[in-house]
Design goal:
The structure holds 2 protein chains of 2 kinds. Helices cover 55% and strands 12% of the residues of chain A. By secondary structure, chain A is an alpha/beta fold. Chain B has a two-stranded antiparallel sheet. In chain B, strands 2-3 form a two-stranded antiparallel ribbon. Chain B is globular, with a radius of gyration of 19 Å. The chains are: A alpha/beta, B mainly alpha. Chains A and B meet through helix 5, helix 9 and helix 11 of A and helix 4, helix 9 and helix 11 of B.
Amino acid sequence: MEDLPASRAVAGTALAALALGAGVLPFWASDYVLDVAITILTYGILGLGLNIVVGYAGLLDLGYAAFFAIGAYTTALLETHVHLGFWETLPPALALAALSGVVIGYPTLRLRSDYLAIVTLGFGEIVRIIATNLDITGGPNGIYGINPPVLFGVELSSPAQLYGLAWAFLVVVLLFTRRLATSRLGRAWLSIREDETAAEAIGVPTLRVKLLAYVMGALVGGFGGSLFAGRFGAIDPTGFTYLQSINVLIVVVLGGMGSTPGVLLGAVIVAGLPEALRFLELWREFGFAIGLIVLMLVRPQGLWPAPASRRVVLPEGDAGNLVFPGAGAARGEPLLAVASLTHEFGGVRAVSEVSLEVRRGEILSIIGPNGAGKTTVFNCLTGVIRPRAGDLRFRGRPIAGLPPHRVVALGLSRTFQGIRLFPNMPAYENVLVGMDPHHRVSLPGEIFRLPGTRRDASEHLALCRSLLRFVDLEGAAGQRAGDLSYGDQRRLEIARALGARPEILLLDEPAAGMNPTEKGELMALIRRIRDLGVTVVLIEHDMMLVMQVSDRVLVMDHGALISEGRPEEIQRDPRVIDAYLGIEEGEEAGAEPEEAALWRS
Amino acid sequence: MQAFFQYTVEGLTIGAFYALVALGYTMVYGIIRLINFAHGDVFMVGAFIGWSVLVTLLGMHWAMAAAFLVALALALAGCGALGVVIDRVAYQPLLAAPRLSILITALGVSLALENGVLLLYGPGFLTYPHLISTAGFDIGGVEISWAQTAMFVISVVLMFALYLVVHRTYVGTAMRALAVDQDAARLMGIDVERIIQLTFFIGSVLAAAAGVMEGVYYTQISFFMGFLVGLRAFTAAVLGGIGNIPGAMAGGLLIGLLEAYSAGYLSSRWTDVFVFLVLIGVLVVKPTGLFGERVVERM
């Protein structure tokens, strides 16, 4: 999980050098330089906070200054009106910022990502206009006379002291965001950034995860706002404009979305470049704008992008840690019962009155011509589609209408017809996201690195390793998932679905695009999955694979179930032959002789 | 009730400007999924080109109508060219890059245009030559000036022309194809880059028209005027359902009305709060905007 020792040593040396440089700065630098440095640090804090929303979760936020304003105004108001000390104002400031994260997050959850731009922008403007127009916030003049923070009886008011305070704040935020990034929640954010639909379908509670992105981002923004109020002793609405939000967004995107060093570099540029361009005088802002365009054109990924693959060493776990809930249970017990399932798309009946049963321990195939409604059945079973009618019960419990991640948690996980991995995440993290429904670790446990949590996390990593080994991808653990070969991606998707430790695994055309050797391996893999105690349901067009691997086969045509039985019974069923080939058996010469031959095998 | 109708007239006039600018946002968004933050500033540049030409020509004792038409034509041509250049330099190279990087160059272009105009014309307000009279007519006590009528009619004619281009010409069909699936459009032989340029050209021309008309109507322009109008127009585009051309027109008029009513009945200080609350309310009830069902979601 951690980087290898060599690269850590290099990073450690660089960090130590930077820390030394930053540490001695107050002893030789002028107040002006320190002031710029504090501004850089503040942008660093805000950038790291917005990076949670934009970089990790992939949600656009153009009103981030609102959280900054809420933190600053809360501290200012509580200090001047209630006479609390700076430190006492922090908890309420953070709480209020987090609450406003919920307020802005909640209505936007259902929106398409592009609409977030204007809604968040609107939220930012609303907060600023309210601050400008209310009497209690001092209107356009703002609030002044905010006392500087007092630490051990010392008022922190000189530039050097404030510089130290800003560093302390940045370090807290750095630790917080780094630990968030490597937490279960952090991986869930990346997964929704990569493919929200797939994330939900493999068990990530996407709505809650998105809301938490806003809340965590808001917390950091509020934290930065309190620092801002304490630093200047006076605040007014001009510090929290739309342009401020834009500047923070530039910090994140220019530096490299999702990348901590990138964001810090972005802060140095956004706060430092205008100072460095002072010699341009009137042309300074113009020069900054041109510089911004040129930098983006030269480095569209950002100046220091986050790596999508990394070298990892996953801990070795117990040999027997690959345990599934269905292991050892008696075969044949009905697990999933579907009665009269019906669904329509715009008046077209895709699935009509389908009833079926899945029994524990079997390999069940659903076959049928294209457009027969097979994938729609999968989508109804996994909650991706809410069916128009019909009763779906998993172990006696109704599951129709449950959101996909709830269905996964109950024990039904799936793969997709077209591969839907999280391409910009390493392979092992794809599997870890798949394991989300059974993660025990708590967020505070991960943030504070509690011993129990570390032990659990280590067990999860060991299980992840076992899953990768199970699909023969152990050596590719750290590789970017999108860089894997096609067959590897298919198997990684299966490992990811197995991560939820399902009772039933639904595979949607797993053999599509595979060569005969790969198909042979896939067949063996499906049997091994069944031997782990996982019931397998697959949709497949490859008849050789279906006939060899299945215990039972269901045939669909035009949305209805037309036949059901053991493979050899299906092959003899005239209704199936008619639906599938459209001609009498024995006359199928010509069109697809190879498949016809396989069919008869 | 008379006040209500007076506000309505005001709102429709401002709304027509917003609609013209909103069309540029919605067209560009429709084909390359970019929120073109520089668009409001193209509107501003249009107003400044118009001002420069008008002042020069009137200084040469041209007739008012002739000077206005030449100023309008040059503003349209200048902004059209500007739109194409912006697209070529700042957007085309990034079409395949992560979507936020192109958003940042758009912000960079916006800043560059604002500061460029600031350098050329200075930070203060400029006053447009007085071209229009306040004369008009009166319906049941509601005063409507000829200028308002003319602005509204010109806007509606431009919007109707755009609608015809998009729905009745080959180029419009290509634009709509691009909006649905760029790769498929390319494979069908459509010159994607040229169509994107053309979209920027048309959007910028409409914005310039709005810019000159706004200058003539309100008489004061500044380098910062693009921000507020851009924000309102963008809001209008989203309210109507971004990517949807009739939606942008309706959204623009609606935002104009909201602004006029809130300024009239409440206070102009709270206009933006009111507008954004309505927007958020609409999006919560109908997440794709008022006319958004025709937007194609890319999976």
